[in-house]
Amino acid sequence: MDGTADHIDEELASWLCDQPVFFVATAPLDGDGRVNCSPKGNRGEFAVINPTTVAYLDQNGSGIETIAHLRENGRITLMFTAFTGAPRIVRLQGRGEFIVQDDPRFADYCNAFPLPVGVGARAVIVAHLTRVADSCGFGVPLMKFNGHRRALDAWATKKGAEGLVDYQQRNNLRSIDDLPGLDPLDAPADMPTPA
Q1: Does the CA dihedral 123-50-129-35 come out positive or negative?
Q2: What is the pLDDT of residues 34-89, one digit of tens each?
Q3: Bridge-based pairing state of the strands 46-50 and 53-59
Q4: What pTM was computed for the model?
Q5: Parallel, antiparallel, or unpaired: how do β-strands 53-59 and 121-135 relate?
Q6: Which CATH entry fits the domain spanning 3-186: 1.10.150.240, 2.30.110.10, 1.10.10.10, 2.170.130.30?
Q7: Domain extents for the chain?
Q8: C-alpha angle 73/76/78, rounded to 5°?
């Protein structure tokens, strides 16, 4: 596919899931607010739910921009690019929502990922797509993938469930533009330690 569509076909679904990294962009409604773009490692943490819905695991971190922006306005773009093989860039645009661990849908979405969900996951981000854009990627360099980092898993495991709740309450309640992020009532339940 080269162009735009309103859904993901089987070939594209397979390609998306094979990419080791993707990028997520969101923005507040305020014109003076900061646009956010975050890289996401894909160790089986991205899934195509159906031709118009994708999801990824949102890991604990110092920022809460994606969730704050989705809470405010729902706009989201995910971008994937080929660093090996044929040049390709794919942008998935649509409306997003975040699903925290105490939401009954959390476990159902987690079943879509090929690996067990580890202690560091604070939410599942779900994007309901309105546009799928596939372009050449001729300007993207070729790079060798050496492997995924394990530092985030080790950090989350060391903190444990209670430590992560404390961290979220200190760091994830407000965005850098002072938008609401995680609600204290969104505190995660105990999660299994990653293997």
Answers
A1: positive
A2: 999 999 999 999 999 999 999 999 999 999 999 999 999 999 999 999 999 999 99
A3: antiparallel
A4: 0.92
A5: antiparallel
A6: 2.30.110.10
A7: 3-186
A8: 170
